[in-house]
Amino acid sequence: MLKIPFITKEKAEEIIKTYPTPFHIYDEKAIRENARKLKQAFSWNKGFKEFFAVKATPNPTILKILKEEGCGTDCSSYSELLMSKKCGFKNPDIMFSSNDTPFEEFQYANEVGAIINLDDITHIDMLKDACGIPETICCRFNPGGKFSISTTIMDNPGDAKYGMTREQIKEAFIRLKELGAKNFGIHSFLASNTVSNEYYPTLAGILFKLAVELKNETGVDIKFINLSGGVGVPYTPDKEPNDILVIGEGVRKVYEEILVPNGMGDVSIYTELGRFMLAPYGQLVTTAIHEKHIYKEYIGVDACAVNLMRPAMYGAYHHITVLGKENAPCDHVYDVTGSLCENNDKFAIDRKLPKIDMGDILVIHDTGAHGFAMGYNYNGKLKSAELLLREDGSVVEIRRPETVEDYFATLDGYWNVIE
């Protein structure tokens, strides 16, 4: 798949006059189109709802765009719940899926009317003590073992810290029903960033069968099944993207094969997509500022792992385009690096690229999810701005860059002592 930046060199140069690199920029038009396509894919399900994973791109402007497209939010912390509330999300458009959850966060989740998704059976007592058991409740399932599609192992849920065993979720449903819960949901996440149209239908089959069994064994009223995230994007150009319409049709077939014959044709389908919703529609724009010629050829840019941690943390691939040189031969091999005092601060290793000159503008693709969000302040580096390319072609700043004052703000009251 050819990866083409959604801004040209000329547009980037125009933007940089006002907003210096590095910055993350998001494509509003593409975000909206993708949200509508997802809704179309699951339009067969009357209660379908996408709860966008706030952790992927926690920016109020992005959340408000998705709210306008009918999405809710998936939150995992107090801050994400607070952001959702301030953006106008309210019951039942907030899902709270967390783990090792503090007592106070259960209280706040209940206060804002979020649907609470329990990660562990021991959380029942904590929730009861924190705010009581709400009428609508969800539990997270972990089947254990390895998760495979056909003969390919996709992930290893048995090593994951999330969710309940089969026996635990049954026991949890019985107990929650005794404590007053009336409406139940099932949630599960078995694999991350799958580039396969089979993942969601396969997961759906597992959860739909479980729902039928739990209904028969416990007598609970299962209102929704949350397929969570896991539908990914092709970071490398050699992979084809998922077809969400094919995925939605695959889930529909399994729904009609399993749930409908068992009298559960009114169960709502929920999703919690972050990467699929945003990753391709955000890019990190950075400028080449140094070159180094030792045992390897290095290009240093003004961004670093503070702006995009995934390559340093996971060895993740992100495609790079040198603006204005899209058609030039990729006849140079570079490590593209940031300035952190860590040797893993590299956006690319041994990457074939056109010859890069100082001042060239590089676009690092697919940073719209888990890009800015994972930023940190190692070496005292400051987080960059976030920009939005509006549908009319204008560009607005939706988060200003951090300042040194921001970095030292938490030292108020201590700074004078140090001096």
Summarize the structure.
The protein is α/β, with parallel strands linked by helices and 419 residues long.
Topology:
Blueprint: H1 9-16, E1 23-27, H2 28-41, E2 49-53, H3 60-68, E3 72-75, H4 78-86, E4 94-97, H5 103-111, E5 115-118, H6 123-131, E6 136-140, E7 147-149, E8 152-155, H7 166-178, E9 183-187, H8 199-218, E10 221-226, H9 244-258, E11 268-271, H10 275-278, E12 282-293, E13 297-301, H11 310-314, E14 320-322, E15 332-337, E16 346-353, E17 361-364, E18 385-389, E19 395-399, H12 404-408, H13 415-418
Task: Provide an overview of this structure.
Strands 1, 12, 13, 14, 15, 16, 17, 18 and 19 form a nine-stranded mixed β-sheet that branches. The protein has an eight-stranded parallel β-barrel with strand order 2-3-4-5-6-9-10-11, surrounded by five helices. A two-stranded antiparallel ribbon has the order 7-8. With 419 residues, the chain is α/β, with parallel strands linked by helices. It has helices spanning 9-16, 28-41, 60-68, 78-86, 103-111, 123-131, 166-178, 199-218, 244-258, 275-278, 310-314, 404-408, 415-418, and strands spanning 23-27, 49-53, 72-75, 94-97, 115-118, 136-140, 147-149, 152-155, 183-187, 221-226, 268-271, 282-293, 297-301, 320-322, 332-337, 346-353, 361-364, 385-389, 395-399. Helix 2 packs parallel to helix 9 and helix 8 runs parallel beside helix 9. The model has no long low-confidence stretch (mean pLDDT 95). 30% of the residues lie in helices and 23% in strands. A hairpin with a 3-residue loop joins strand 12 and strand 13.
